[in-house]
From TrEMBL:
Organism: Rhodococcus pyridinivorans
Protein name per UniProt: VOC family protein
Keyword GTP-binding attributed: no
Signal peptide: none
UniProt keyword annotations, A-Z: Plasmid
Length: 293
């Protein structure tokens, strides 16, 4: 019951056809269909929609979280209404989605709660199903990290209205929330929010799940073969402890993430040292890592 995990996201890109080619040939995604100037893609293992690409700009247009029943949609619809937040119901917008609630968050991000069709995809990810594909062969959409000038209103909204828990907080100074990592499942984060001084920026990165460090190595070689430079990584984060590799595709940053830990209920961890929060191995991100789309 409740929100179980991320479902999919819609990202804006400048050249739609070029972006689709990179996602299919380099990232190993599979096209599911096209409508209204958008292309829907799956990471290819469970055949569910993981990503929607839409022409025009960069950044995240909307992102969806998965719920497990109509009762969940009714529950969160009431929570939103009680909080005075306008929302609307959508049906059959994306492959494998039977119904969703769409609303705007306090930071202006468009969020959806999506109920998937029962017959769409298996109940769990099986890595062997990805073995026949080309590209980096990611397993699934793993998490999304948003940008906001002030993360706290969105963090409070997700905790108070959507029942998320906070795993970790980065506070560069007392009483200042620089970033937060939140979970709906027992994985360390499904959604994270990082502060940015730039107005109008919505996305820090869209993350794909990988099997292991060795999988990150194979993916790095695949990126190199296609001339896609790595921005930073591979490495291991301090916050969350997951393995990472970052790169840009079609104007948006992507992360390849592996070994995301499970978290027990409890008070969030607090960090005030950015280098240690970013990397346990002493890696320093480039200046470009502070940019967003």
């Amino acid at each position: 019951m409740g929100i179980s995990q991320v479902s999919h996201a819609e990202l804006a890109v400048g050249d739609l056809e070029e972006a689709v080619g990179l996602h299919v040939d380099v990232l190993g995604m599979k096209e599911l269909g096209r409508s209204d100037g958008s292309v829907r893609l799956t990471a290819g293992v469970d055949e569910r929609c993981d990503l929607v690409l839409t022409s025009g700009g960069t950044g995240v247009r909307r992102f969806a979280l998965r719920v497990d029943s109509h009762d969940d949609l009714e529950y969160y619809g009431k929570r939103l209404a009680d909080a005075g937040i306008e929302h609307n119901t959508r049906s059959d917008e994306d492959p494998g989605v039977s119904q969703s609630l769409q609303f705007q968050t306090p930071t202006g991000h468009v969020m959806e709660l999506s109920l998937l069709t029962d017959a769409e995809g298996p109940q769990y990810i099986h890595p062997a199903r990805a073995a026949h594909r080309g590209g980096i062969r990611a397993l699934d959409f793993d998490h999304i990290t948003l940008q906001a000038q002030d993360p706290k209103p969105l963090v409070d909204f997700m905790v108070d209205i959507l029942d998320f828990q906070i795993s970790d907080i980065f506070a560069p100074a007392p009483g200042v929330m620089g970033a937060a990592w939140l979970r709906a499942s027992d994985l360390h984060h499904d959604v994270a929010i990082i502060s940015t001084p730039e107005p109008g920026k919505s996305l820090h990165h869209y993350a794909l799940g990988m099997e292991s460090f060795d999988h990150l190595k194979v993916a790095a070689d695949e990126l190199a073969r296609h001339g896609v430079p790595i921005e930073t990584g591979p490495g291991r984060h301090g916050v969350g402890a997951n393995l990472y590799t970052y790169f840009w595709v079609a104007g948006n940053r992507y992360e390849l993430s592996a070994e995301m830990p499970r978290v027990r209920p409890g008070a969030p961890g607090m960090w005030d040292n950015f280098p240690k929060a970013f990397s346990l191995w002493g890696l320093t991100p480039p200046e470009s890592f502070g940019h967003a789309s």
